[in-house]
Amino acid sequence: MGNRFLKLTIFISITFTLFSFWDHRLVGYLKDFVVFIHEIGHAVAALLTGGSVHTIELHGNESGETIAIPSSGTGSFIFVVSAGYLGSCLMGGFLLNRGFSGKMIRPTLISFGTILLLMTISYSKPGNLAQYTGIFWGLGFVLLGFFDLKINRFVLVFIGTSISLYSLYDLLDFTGNIAYTDAGIMATWITGANSTQVVPKSVTVLGYLIALLWSFFSLSIIFISIKKVFQSSVSEREISQVENSFQENGNTEVPFPGEVTPEVMEWFFSKGLDLNGKPLPTEFLEKEEL
């Protein structure tokens, strides 16, 4: 997936396909999985803050529940509640990055699957949908990771896109019932409103603002993940062109054995040197001036 246009086409195609067939029965299994990732985000955040996790459940209607006790403190509660959507986007962005870059594909699949299995065994109830979902997808990723298949990269891109976009879709999907979302829970906690009574307007308004803020961060995470891959592919192509230029001019030495960043390469070229510290060919300098 070295071509930027191809990467963008794949990402847009997956996005369009997901939104087009979102209500199809078969996509329900994917929905359960991404909701499970969302709930794992809450659980991991609770553990990171020194809290405890009692159970993770899925209800089969694009909703789930994580019963956790974060450590005392305002920051811990905000972190745990926000970790569902933002944690999902971070994980989705990471998988997208690995899939598009083609780096550490098999270790990523095995590690991701292992984490799913550990969280499932530790915190899901026997017989609950969360248990079946975690074991099925976790084992699937681990098994894929043991084989060097070309489809593995596409799997990471597809799953990463699904997880990332679902966070945004879910925020929009529950806008008519904002009080029962994570954003509504945080808004209720901030305003001190009684959740058993009629939802006050302040909770609704604040809930929408929180949802918009999370959406902004989610989009930023997706953008940064994809942008880094595109930038790295451009740098690799430029380095390849320079190496080819050296070979065409009879220079068979391997340039600069370390990692070549765009800044390092630019510094060498500004001095009229190749990556071995030798003067660049005259033809190459003339091309650069043009």
Automatic annotation (TrEMBL):
UniProt cross-references to InterPro entries, sorted A to Z: Peptidase_M50B-like
One matching Pfam family: Peptidase_M50B
Transmembrane regions: 6-22, 76-97, 104-123, 129-147, 154-172, 205-226
Coiled coil: none
Keywords: Membrane, Transmembrane, Transmembrane helix
Protein's name in the database: Peptidase M50B-like protein
Organism (species): Leptospira santarosai str. MOR084
Lineage: Bacteria, Pseudomonadati, Spirochaetota, Spirochaetia, Leptospirales
